[in-house]
Amino acid sequence: xxxxxxxxxxxxxxxxxxxxxxxxxxxxxxxxxxxxxxxxxxxxxxxxxxxxxxxxxxxxxxxxxxxxxxxxxxxxxxxxxxxxxxxxxxxxxxxxxxxxxx
Length: 102
What we know:
This protein has helices spanning 3-21, 24-36, 42-48, 53-65, 84-90, and strands at 40-41, 69-74, 77-82.
C-alpha cells in the first residue's frame, strides 16, 4: 500500500471522526464512556444522557462507523465501549481533554 493511499484512508477516517464528534450528544457519549472507563449498556447511556432510544441508536451507529466505539450484543442488550486504539493513533490526548472542565 502506498503512502498516498495510507494517508487518504486515514484522512477519510479522520473526516468521519470529526463529523461524529461535532455533535454535542455524541461528544457526551464519548465523555461518559471515558469517565466510566468501561463498557456501558446502550439503554443506560440513553437514560443517563436523556436521549431517546431512536436518537441514541443513531448516535451509537455514527460513533461505531467512525471507529470511535465498539458494540457488543448479549441477548437483547447492547454494550458500547470506546475504541481506545483509534483515539491513541488518530486523536492522541483527546480523551484526557474531556476530563472535568471547569
